[in-house]
Write a structure and sequence with these properties.
The chain is of the alpha+beta class. It is built from 17 helices and 24 strands.
């Protein structure tokens, strides 16, 4: 005999009329309609409406004290709804259950936040009571979607000949661009494990071990600040590596997987294969970012030269240019008829959100058959220079152009953000589409503006284009790597690379970044040692699972697709982590907690 249920709360239909059934679930909500009490009963699968007649005083009395989210079991008969009461929004909307018996399985206390409905609540409450939050329909569906996506990815990868493997969680530190989470060793006092920022070295060692295609849904741990598209603490990625491959081979392996996943779990149009390939240099030139949203048709342009002209009298830009800065133009198509508030609001946004001096602009209109600029700074720019700017930015009458002016990376950050902002305000962003692209040919190195130090700009284990000869005979800042990012709708899903599998080249690559041979040996000795015994050329990539699900769920914050996320301060408000430990435990680990100012 079935103890708790004969059916789930999404199963019963008109064809089940007059069946005696048992259902179990949570009280989603109660509604008193005078002569009858309605109970919406919810389980993982759906909702079924249950009915108790007011003449059944015993049942009514049992229900009176039950709050929403109490767990109950009901026995009753399936009846058809009257035509005027059919609820087409429910799978079970054409039937209801006439209840004749009730068993209370668990009583709910007064709720700190309601589960029924999708109203927004403070993050602190939602994370503290996450077990309630994930009962809510939208979030519950996101977690189901996540599970389905991961299951489908596993299927696709296995069908493509990849073997799923598991790599260690307790390991050694590896430079992946963020701080490590450290785990003290009890057996080896004063020494620490590191939680892996990524399985980088291990997946390369798998290739050295003679396997051809590896993947795993890998947990990664990074002690870094939270962002809307990145959760602090931990995240998951589709980690993959392939032997005997070049860059194109990796692209050809992962593109069909991503395309298939995005087509299966959305109704949006997906970029045709092969995905466009854009060099890092071209991406910065056209979009001011290496994460371009290709749904936005706006392309930026460098107009530093035009503002450097001796006849231009706009001194605010000239001072920045003289100090090594640049001016980037961001077109705003067909915006001349926008109200003054459009221009003022963008200027204020740049000051407030981007910490920029503002956004200068020129509005172009045709006067007596001649394209003419107007606006606060137009009077400082001769008409011939205005026309040169219009030509470079492909502007016509009715278009405007905004200017970002700053030094170093900041000018690109401002221009890229302004491009997105203008595209949104002017409704230029293409709808219902996932636009993928590869960003390729990243510089191997970058130089710190303040210290002048040369450091890796991307993955330190990447093969430099040109190999050892390029490292020896070229300016490090001119050396490109076999490095690539996959970007979708302005979100970087993953970085990847063809790996540097030659010890001699690896030593030289790290030497340029300030590492001695001994330091490289100490940090990466296991991998370099393995490379000394024959290793194939190999490469891979690791698209972020959380970001994939976020895009497919059409959520703006990654916490909406993670089961138990931390808050922005990397705290688990539900489990109260991180937490202190007692002196006995500290002594076992040979650790001592130093007092802080807060203590």
């Amino acid at each position: 005999m079935v103890k708790y249920r004969t059916h789930n709360c999404n199963e019963l239909k008109e064809s089940d009329e007059n069946k005696d059934v048992i259902l179990a679930g949570w009280i989603n909500r109660k509604r008193d309609h005078g002569n009858v009490l309605f109970i919406d009963l919810r389980d993982h699968y759906g909702v079924t409406q249950c009915v108790i007649e007011k003449t059944n005083t015993k049942l009514l009395k049992e229900f009176e004290s039950l709050r929403a989210e109490s767990v109950i079991k009901i026995h009753g008969k399936v009846i058809k709804r009257e035509k005027e009461t059919i609820n087409d929004s429910l799978v079970t909307g054409k039937i209801e259950i006439s209840v004749d018996a009730l068993e209370v399985l668990s009583v709910a206390n007064e709720l700190p936040m309601p589960v029924f409905g999708e109203n927004d609540y403070p993050e602190e409450i939602r994370l503290k009571y996450r077990f309630l939050d994930i009962r809510r329909e939208e979030l519950h569906n996101n977690i189901v979607l996540r599970s389905s996506i991961i299951s489908y990815i596993r299927k696709l990868m296995s069908e493509a000949g990849f073997l799923e493997m598991q790599t260690p969680i307790l390991t050694a530190s590896s430079p992946e661009g963020a701080r490590d989470y450290l785990v003290p060793s009890r057996i080896h006092p004063g020494k620490f494990y590191a939680l892996p920022q990524a399985p980088q070295q291990f997946k390369q060692l798998i290739m050295a071990g003679g396997f051809d295609k590896y993947f795993q849904i890998a947990p990664c741990f990074r002690d870094e600040d939270a962002r809307a598209d990145r959760s602090p603490g931990e995240f998951y990625q589709l980690d993959m590596e392939m032997a005997f491959v070049e860059q194109d081979d990796v692209f050809n392996a992962i593109e069909p997987v991503l395309s298939s996943v995005f087509k299966k779990f959305s109704n949006f149009k997906v970029t045709d294969l092969p995905f466009p390939r854009i060099t890092y240099k071209e991406a910065m030139k056209k979009y001011a970012t290496d994460k371009p949203d290709l749904r936005n048709p706006i392309e930026v342009c460098d107009i530093t030269q035009e503002f450097s002209d001796n006849d231009v009298e706009f001194k605010a830009f000239k001072k920045v240019i003289d100090a090594g800065g640049r001016v980037l133009g961001i077109p705003a198509p067909k915006s001349s008829m926008q109200p003054r508030s459009f221009f003022d609001n963008l200027n204020n946004w740049a000051k407030k959100e981007m910490n920029a001096p503002g956004l200068g602009y020129i509005i172009f209109e045709e006067v007596d058959g001649i394209l003419t600029g107007k606006g606060p700074i137009a009077k400082f720019i001769p008409s011939n220079i205005q026309l040169e700017i219009a030509k470079k930015a492909n502007l016509n009458s009715g278009d405007s152009i905004f200017f970002a002016c700053d030094k170093g990376k900041m000018v690109y950050d401002i221009a890229a953000a302004a491009r997105n902002k203008i595209g949104e305000i002017l409704d230029l962003i293409e709808k219902d589409v996932f636009r993928f692209c590869w960003i390729i040919d990243f510089p191997m190195y970058e130089q710190d503006r303040d210290t002048g130090k040369i450091d890796f700009s991307h993955n330190p284990f990447s093969m430099p284009q040109g190999g050892l000869e390029a490292l020896i005979n070229s300016d490090p800042l001119d050396v490109l790597g076999y490095q690539y990012d996959i970007v979708c709708n302005g979100i970087e899903l993953s970085s990847g690379a063809i790996r540097n599998h030659i010890p001699e080249i690896m030593y030289k690559a790290f030497e340029i970044s300030g590492y001695t041979k001994k330091q490289v040996q100490d940090k990466f000795g296991g991998m370099i040692n393995a490379f000394s015994y024959g290793v194939p050329p190999h490469g891979g990539i690791a698209p972020g699972i959380d970001r994939i699900v976020m895009l497919l769920a059409q959520e703006k914050n990654i916490r909406e697709v993670i089961l138990f996320p931390m808050n922005q301060q990397a705290q688990d408000l539900m489990m109260l982590a991180p937490a202190g430990v007692d002196d006995k435990t500290l002594n076992e680990l040979n650790l001592k907690v130093m007092p802080t100012e807060e203590d």
